[in-house]
Every structure is written in structure tokens, then in C-alpha cells.
Amino acid sequence: MEDKNPITASIDWLVAQGFDRKQATNICKAIKADSPEKLWEDAPAWIEWCGKVKRDHDCIVMLAAMGLTTVRIGTGGVENDLRMALVEGIELSPEISAKGN
Asked: Beta partners for 82?
């Protein structure tokens, strides 16, 4: 087995799960954290979760794959405390914004 950096290996694994390379790259870029240590802790869980639930929760994962959202994983873990946010610069339509208020 050849040595790969963890990001390249993660992208390749996501491609093997059925994402195209651009989607896999965006999924890897979607994870955010308050520190490098927290990022390295959360990233594998996020990437594994995206691959495992692609069929069951495709819409959530596809938002990240399209580069539309970022994610943070809270203390409850990826299964129970996944926090999504629109990427900066993407705005909700006025109709959607009105429903949220």
C-alpha cells in the first residue's frame, strides 16, 4: 500500500463511496473547528459519516459536497451534534428567511 497524506486518502475513499472528486474535495473542506487539534479529531468522523450515510442522508452530505455548507461537530459527536452553516456569501431567499423568523 502506498503512503498518502490523510487528505488525499480521505478524498480517494469518498470517491470510492460514490462521490465525484470535486464533491469529495468539498466534503473534506467543509469540516471546520476552533483548533487544529479539534479539526484532526473531528475530520475522520465527518468523512467516515459522509461515506456511510450517503444513501440514507444524501441531502445533508450533498450540501457539503456542493460546497454550500460548512460543518462543526459538537460534544455529542457527528451522529448527535452536527452543526451545519451556509458557506459565507450564500444567502437564503426572502421567503425562507421569513419562515425562520
From this structure: 73
